[in-house]
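Re: the 350-residue chain
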Amino acid sequence: MEFNTIKFKKPIYKIKAPLKEHLRNYSRISKLPISYYDLLRFDDMFPVLNSQNEETLWYSVVYREDERDEIYKGLVSVYEDLFSEGDRIPFLKVERIDYCSFGNSKPFRVKIINELNDNHDYFYIKQADASRIYGLELEEIFSPDRVNYLVDERTLVEEHVIGIPMDEFISQNKDVVIENRLRLAKEFIRFNERCSIRLLGDMRAYNFVVEITQDFDNVQYRLRAMDFDQQSYEGRLNIYKPQFFKDNIELVKLVQELMSVETTNQYSRMERVAMKKRLSTYRRRARSLLLRMKKEKISTPEKVKSLTKDLNQFHNTDAFSNLQTMAEVLNLHIEKSLGVQILNTKNAGI
């Protein structure tokens, strides 16, 4: 098996007027009291350690005393905007702010605690990137999970995706026979299919999580993406298939061990049916998103041309040959994969 590699960092694409209009129509725009760039004014940082006392990619940041109260108050207000549409939630305070310089969005992770009962929660503040926002919207449309986020100019606020990062889960369970292995294998097949159809790239093990639920008679698993920077950007189809990343080889081996090709294909078909049903609920939203996506540049002409070649071969057609934008490529790929129509020549408006 040839594994995927991504050599160059993706640029951040500005959010332009067409996408802003879509976000406003679907209540994703908010006037926030603090921005991503306000948080960059930290005075010092120190490494965040994991449970094995090892350094992670995160650093806890410290602010000057004359700025700290204003920043913390702003972050509590952001949390209230995200989870209660601005209604005040009593007894909240900021426990910690962490910063990660790894990756495209260079996020801040904010830990909020309720002083009344010590319950805590996380949310993230990131640089707003059009690619990521298109990815979040497509997650809302095509995945079984809902996403919660807000945008204010160049700032993106996201709810924490609950689960164990898959790379940590694999490391923790090395040489261990986990419960309900068949369910995990099935989830990986469906996750792989979903990413491939909606062109969500770079799903290496540290970019998605496993959510574990104790059912009445067994353990159940749900795989969820938590990084959307590589939405419809790369020029090779295999980049959009998690099965071709070296980090996910243990999951691939699990599928190969437990399932036949016929069973694998059956679960892939089930996911396509599920995606088609979700699209029927969100068809207007999907049309709005793709029409606006057509007006923006979120990749390069070279990558678009390369991906059209892969998709022509994959679908055994030449219908992708004259497409010029990633939105056109994505739309046709979804339509051919799910047997539906989203956009057509009669779609002059929304």
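Residues 311 and 320 are 7 Å apart (CA to CA).
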